[in-house]
């Protein structure tokens, strides 16, 4: 019943990317997806819709807040914005993630010696 | 509490989500169209890249849900809708369950009040009843004598307090009308042993056991009714049995001891027995076993440890006093609650077991109903599985449906039980201790709820098993399940099981009814109709009083004869005394014992028992004339086999006043008038003439040609004309006494009879439902048979044969259960063998008849199937 993230993403990865993107600027869903896709140079296979359950989760946790507004192109959009709590969560997640990456890198580099 | 707010704002959240997703797709389509795709292509691509919109929306929503509870509530709502959609099924299921649950709740509430609830004294689990164990023959508990009790009290180290008590009748005079009081003569520490404080005044003091002390504690009720709740009553002197006695305390409201059907009015010390007026006071007679004893265990002492120590004391007493204690070298300790309710246990457990069987039958019915529904809903389940419903979800849904059903059934059942209890309790009369305390308390509700849960598991599991292995493809095929139905075998088995259980209950009820009938119609050896009895306790000149009372009573219109007797027959009170046969003397401990009774001349004529040989007592059999006895035929046969008892001389242990035992000549032999209600064989009894053994206080018996109770006011006037200060008590017809003795059996018979009827009804409706359903399912087949030339009779035969197959297999299984049931019941039966071929045959016939009844309508329906229509419906 819970969101099944794509296999090529580990749990929390999508959330981390969303938070990181929102940290730079508030965005609405469509723009968020496009931004992530472009920034990742389409290397990550993201089902566009999977963004929304993730956003709902983050709304519930209070990491982001959302407001309806009208976009530059005159479209009614719901813009998400990072909250201070979201910022803290992001920092924690990123540092955890980097530690993990470092650990994995060390183990992988063993074989090359 | 965040989630509560979320429940309210969720609709908004969900709207936002849907709108947002829609906007996303619109924007994407616009973007794709700008890059040169047609609208259709763009829309398709947008959706493809977005993913499963429904699923994702749902996942988005799920974030906000408090899922376990909400799923559950949703399941219940769904279950409720399902039930409302098929009201016939719902009503049948709920009523069936309500019947089963109601029966069980009612019976359990009685079990709870009588057997389970602790006694209403502080730390009552430490209260223990103490008896001697008579080891002659089958070891059996007996009462204690005062000297033995005193030795127990002095030498034990296991009881905080140990107290003797015995019933006695008293009359209170000098404060308005004479009042009869039920009293207890107790040792001094009655209130300490129970852990109770009198609400006013005090309990007894140790020195108040000595000769000449006359102190009483009165019950709250007597205090209210006789003394108007006056608090200064403590310290007041009242006349009880014409002696001045001092009220030292008033018991708290609701307090009674011992716990019996009738509350006790007053308590006094054994000082009265110290002054018993006999040559040797009863408090010094080791052979006079007349006491009940209750003790409170010291902290940390188990009942087994107490028993071990008491056994040692009893063994040493047996060595020290062989004449009186040789046969009781051991003791018999039981928790007080067991002592009180032990006799009620077997019948109540039988009832509880029977109620359980009824519930099983009801479960069978509901399981069958559910199975039929599952079969009908097989396609629904298959569809839901096909579109991705998880198996766990389906099973949970099915269980919720069962739970919903049983919750409604249980609620109705409990309500029905509350009503039923009011109806059935009066039937039990005084036959069950603490029966007046029956109500539906928390424990009963918990029991019912647990039962409902267990029940829904039992019947709910069956359809679940079927859902677990769904054959999706087969289920989806149109019409594929009209010929093969995998649930059928299970349904048939359930039905057979019901028939079997129905037969078991029916045969048990049959046995009890037969037993009750035997008991009701057996020869009592006398004529209870037209007999009235009452108690009166003359304080002085007893012999003169009773003689004059008898003369006056016989002059009343309608009265043909009167007599006095102690104890009365059939009231469950017995006096047993040992005796020495002159021709075959024996050491005191080896002497035979028998029930005795004290009666006046004319007693046998009054109750209607024939004098077979010799003579009746007459007015000349008094203290100054030759000591005599009359025995019944059973006594003569048992103690003088092969010879005539007439003229034989025996020396009973019963004494009066300063005189010792006397050797008495048997001057008459009478027919076996029943003394005890519950022995199947005639019980040996020997009768003493009242004037030679004027113990206090016999009851008076009057035989009348008028309805006996119409004499009551005449009798009251007659007694008052002799002595204004004598209260009359326990005015009852002999038939009422008989009925009272029968009330426990009647209770059992009526309840088990109705259980059997309910079970039979459920079995019939279950069988009917199954057959009707199978006829509907086989409409096509039957239509085909009719089209091929089957006659209506042949079609009916198909249905009937099917019904009879169930019934006969059920009977075969049920017979084994019925025999086992009869075995369990053995001790509750009177004059009926536990397996009576006749009764079993009748029970089987009733079941067969019920089966035929159940098959009748479906068979008729089958025979009326129009082949054209049946075949066209496909």
Q: Helix/strand-derived class of chain A?
A: alpha+beta
Q: Write down the Rg of chain B.
A: 38 Å
For the biggest sheet of chain A, the summary is: 3 strands, antiparallel
Total DSSP helices of chain A:
4
Strand order across the biggest sheet of chain B? 3-4-9-6-8-7
Task: Give the end-to-end Cα distance of chain A, rounded to a whole number of Å.
Answer: 45 Å
Average of pLDDT of chain A: 82
Q: Give the spatial strand order of the biggest sheet of chain A.
A: 1-3-2
Assign a percent range to the helix content of chain A: 40-55%
Architecture blueprint of SSEs:
The complex is a heterodimer of chains A (113) and B (874).
Chain A: H1 13-24, E1 27-28, H2 29-39, H3 51-61, E2 64-70, E3 76-82, H4 84-110
Chain B: H1 2-34, H2 39-50, H3 53-62, H4 67-85, H5 87-116, E1 127-134, E2 140-142, H6 146-155, E3 159-173, E4 179-186, H7 190-194, E5 200-201, E6 215-218, H8 220-227, E7 237-240, E8 243-250, E9 266-269, H9 271-274, E10 292-297, H10 303-320, H11 322-325, E11 330-335, H12 336-341, H13 345-376, H14 378-386, H15 391-428, H16 442-468, H17 472-476, H18 488-521, E12 531-536, H19 542-554, E13 559-566, E14 575-581, E15 593-599, H20 603-607, E16 611-614, E17 628-632, H21 633-639, E18 649-652, E19 664-670, E20 685-689, E21 699-704, H22 712-722, E22 728-733, H23 734-777, H24 779-787, H25 792-825, H26 837-863, H27 867-872
Parallel strand pairs in B: 4-9, 6-8, 15-20, 17-19
Antiparallel strand pairs in B: 1-2, 1-10, 1-11, 3-4, 3-7, 3-10, 5-8, 6-9, 7-8, 12-21, 12-22, 13-15, 13-21, 14-15, 14-18, 16-19, 17-20, 18-19
Helix pairs in contact in B: 1-2, 1-3, 4-15, 5-13, 5-15, 5-16, 6-10, 13-14, 13-16, 13-18, 13-23, 15-16, 18-23, 18-25, 18-26, 19-22, 23-26, 25-26
């Amino acid at each position: 019943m819970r969101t099944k993230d794509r296999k090529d993403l580990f749990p929390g990865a999508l959330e981390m990317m969303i938070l990181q993107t929102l940290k730079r600027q508030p965005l609405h869903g469509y723009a968020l997806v496009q931004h992530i896709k472009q920034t990742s140079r389409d290397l990550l296979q993201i089902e566009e819709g999977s963004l929304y359950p993730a956003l709902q989760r983050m709304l519930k946790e209070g990491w982001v807040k959302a407001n309806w507004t009208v976009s530059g192109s005159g479209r009614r959009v719901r813009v998400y914005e990072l909250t201070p709590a979201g910022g803290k969560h992001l920092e924690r997640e990123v540092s955890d993630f980097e530690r993990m990456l470092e650990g994995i890198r060390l183990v992988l580099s063993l074989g090359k010696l | 509490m965040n989630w509560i707010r979320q429940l309210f704002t969720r609709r908004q959240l969900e709207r936002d989500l849907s709108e947002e997703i829609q906007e996303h797709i619109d924007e994407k389509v616009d973007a794709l169209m700008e890059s040169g795709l047609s609208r259709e292509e763009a829309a398709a691509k947008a959706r493809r890249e977005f993913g499963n919109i429904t699923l994702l929306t749902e996942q988005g929503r799920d974030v906000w849900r408090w899922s376990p509870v909400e799923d559950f509530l949703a399941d219940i709502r769904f279950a409720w809708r399902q039930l409302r959609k098929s009201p016939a099924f719902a009503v049948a299921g709920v009523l069936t369950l309500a019947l089963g649950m109601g029966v069980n709740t009612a019976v359990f509430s009685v079990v709870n009040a009588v057997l389970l609830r602790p006694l209403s004294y502080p730390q009552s689990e430490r209260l223990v009843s103490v008896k001697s164990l008579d080891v002659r023959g089958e070891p059996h508990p007996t009462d204690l004598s005062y000297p033995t009790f005193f030795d127990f009290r002095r030498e034990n180290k296991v009881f905080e307090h140990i107290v003797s008590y015995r019933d006695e009748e008293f009359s209170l005079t000098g404060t308005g009308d004479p009042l009869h009081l039920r009293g207890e003569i107790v040792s001094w520490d009655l209130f300490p042993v129970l852990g109770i404080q009198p609400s006013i005044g005090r309990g007894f003091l140790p020195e108040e056991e000595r000769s000449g002390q006359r102190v009483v504690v009165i019950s709250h009720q007597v205090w209210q009714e006789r003394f108007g709740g006056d608090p200064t009553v403590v310290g007041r002197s009242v006349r009880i049995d014409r002696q001045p006695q001092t009220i030292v305390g008033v018991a708290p409201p609701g307090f009674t001891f011992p716990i019996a059907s009738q509350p006790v009015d007053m308590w006094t010390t054994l000082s009265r027995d110290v002054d018993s007026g006999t040559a040797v006071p009863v408090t010094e007679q080791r052979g006079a076993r007349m006491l009940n004893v209750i003790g409170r265990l010291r902290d940390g002492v188990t009942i087994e440890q107490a028993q071990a120590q008491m056994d040692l004391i009893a063994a040493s007493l047996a060595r020290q006093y062989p004449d009186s204690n040789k046969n009781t070298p051991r003791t018999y300790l039981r928790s007080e609650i067991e002592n009180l309710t032990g006799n009620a246990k077997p019948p109540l457990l039988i009832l509880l077991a029977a109620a359980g069987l009824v519930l099983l039958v009801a479960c069978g019915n509901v399981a069958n109903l559910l199975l039929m529904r599952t079969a009908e809903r097989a396609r629904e389940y298959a569809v839901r599985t096909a579109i991705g419903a998880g198996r766990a979800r389906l099973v949970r849904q099915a269980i919720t449906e069962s739970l919903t059903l049983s919750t409604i059934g249980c609620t109705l059942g409990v309500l029905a039980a509350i009503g039923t209890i009011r109806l059935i309790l009066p039937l039990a009369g005084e036959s069950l201790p603490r029966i007046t305390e029956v109500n539906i308390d928390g424990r009963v509700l918990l029991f019912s709820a647990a039962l409902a849960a267990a029940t829904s598991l039992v019947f709910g599991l069956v359809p679940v098993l079927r859902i677990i292995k769904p054959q999706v493809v087969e289920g989806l095929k149109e019409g594929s399940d009209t010929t093969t139905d995998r649930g059928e075998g299970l349904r048939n088995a359930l039905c057979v099981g019901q028939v079997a259980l129905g037969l078991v209950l029916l045969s048990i009820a049959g046995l009890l009814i037969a037993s009750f009938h035997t008991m009701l119609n057996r020869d009592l050896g006398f004529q209870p109709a037209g007999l009235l009895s009452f108690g009166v306790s003359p304080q002085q000149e007893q012999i003169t009083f009773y003689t004059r009372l008898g003369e006056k009573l016989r002059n009343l219109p309608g009265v043909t004869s009167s007599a006095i007797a102690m104890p009365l027959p059939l009231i469950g009170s017995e006096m047993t005394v040992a005796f020495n046969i002159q021709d075959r003397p024996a050491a005191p401990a080896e002497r035979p014992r028998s029930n005795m009774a004290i009666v006046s001349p004319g007693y046998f004529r009054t109750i209607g028992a024939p004098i077979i040989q010799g003579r009746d007592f007459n007015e000349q059999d008094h203290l100054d004339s030759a000591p005599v006895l009359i025995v019944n035929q059973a006594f003569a046969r048992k103690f003088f086999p092969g010879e005539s008892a007439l003229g034989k001389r025996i020396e009973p242990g019963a004494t009066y006043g300063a005189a010792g035992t006397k050797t008495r000549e048997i001057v008459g032999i009478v027919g076996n008038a029943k003394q005890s209600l519950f022995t199947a064989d005639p019980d040996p009894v020997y009768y003493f003439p009242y004037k030679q053994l004027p113990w206090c206080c016999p009851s008076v018996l009057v035989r009348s040609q008028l309805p006996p109770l119409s004499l009551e006011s005449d009798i009251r006037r007659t007694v008052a004309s002799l002595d204004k200060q004598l209260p009359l008590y326990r005015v009852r017809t002999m038939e009422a006494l008989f009925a009272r003795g029968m009330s426990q059996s009647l209770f059992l018979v009526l309840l088990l009879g109705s259980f059997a009827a309910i079970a039979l009804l459920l079995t019939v409706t279950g069988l009917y439902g199954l057959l009707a359903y199978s006829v509907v399912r086989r409409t096509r087949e039957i239509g085909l048979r009719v089209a091929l030339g089957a006659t209506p009779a042949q079609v009916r035969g198909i249905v009937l044969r099917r019904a009879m197959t169930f019934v006969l297999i059920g009977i075969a299984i049920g017979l084994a259960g019925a025999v086992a049931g009869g075995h369990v019941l053995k001790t509750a039966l009177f004059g009926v063998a536990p397996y009576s071929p006749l009764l079993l045959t009748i029970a089987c016939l009733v079941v067969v008849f019920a089966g035929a009844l159940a098959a009748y309508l479906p068979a008729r329906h089958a025979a009326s199937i129009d082949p054209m229509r049946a075949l066209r419906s496909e």
